[in-house]
Amino acid sequence: MNFLDGSLFPENQPKLVITAAPYGPEWMPSDFPEDIPVSMDEHIQKAVDCYNAGATVLHLHVRELDGKGSKRLSKFNELLAGLRQAVPDMILQVGGSISFAPEGEGEAAKWLSDDTRHMLADLTPAPDQVTIAINTNQMNVVEQMCDADIAGTTLADPAMYHAYREMTIPAGPGWVEEHVRRLSEKGIQTHFQLATISQLETVERMMRRGKFMGPLVLTWVAIGGGFDAPNLYNLANFVRACPDGSVLTLESSMLNVLPLNMMAIALGLHVRCGIEDNIWTQRRDRKMSSVEQIEQLVRLSREFGRDIATASEAREIYKIGTFYGSIDETLAKNGFAPNRKPGQVGFTQHAA
């Protein structure tokens, strides 16, 4: 991405898209009973509350009535149908992990099988987006958490902590290409959840080979534990690697969330918040609901002079429903240099 003179002026930046992640699959309802929905009606009301607070993208998971993360696609279908009625304009983004929560004490926190995750392309009604990880990788979501982050929660249980500490993401190239193909075939946008520049380079190679022909809408997930750490140098390098046509959201965990989101607001990027990422105020004097976190970002963005995108504006910014007809168009629209032609020497560039 190029930051020309005036790039930090709010009048030259797109309106802010706020993604809400209010379902917190790593927590149990006892960890934050005031804000963790369990029943289907509570799931839907949480989405309504987040939308009314200013979020236009909903990152969703769903629970069974016993409070554990659901691995049943029928529950996702039920939730999607209810959300289409309650928040019809909101961008519905299904978490591609489905639910990585361990089913029992001491069990591993793991993602569902490859074949089951492919079935996300067949959800009815279809979501707008499904998130996808690139390249099999460690996802130790507790590596950066300190004792104060997990005090009094189920993650303080050594068995639960170990389950999440040892979690990995299965995302080999064959599965990724097939998953993206199925999502695109159903008109569902792939939202790339990327940990490092090397994963971004893999997505670029997919585009150059015609394995993905759509807009590069992505999140930089800076949570450590196999992902980048949320520091300024990693952020600057990742942003510099992103092409000008991409749409970038920043994501982190616990008390890193707010500072990183403030950087995103200032830089003209987009933000994500909610109890899936953090449950505390910056002083850790109390827990902070997803709606409170959204309202906080709305206030801050307005102080920066940057307006909040409406649902229709967010759909335009995220290029929902957009796919491209060729490799050349995909590269050009996303801001990558074209592929090298046979016999071509030197650096490639798009024709004027």
From TrEMBL:
GO molecular function, one term: 3-keto-5-aminohexanoate cleavage activity
Coiled coil: none
Highest taxon in the source lineage: Bacteria
Annotated Gene3D superfamilies: Aldolase class I
Obligatory cofactor(s): Zn(2+)
Keyword set, alphabetical order: Metal-binding, Transferase, Zinc
Name of the protein: Transposase
Source species of the chain: Zavarzinia compransoris
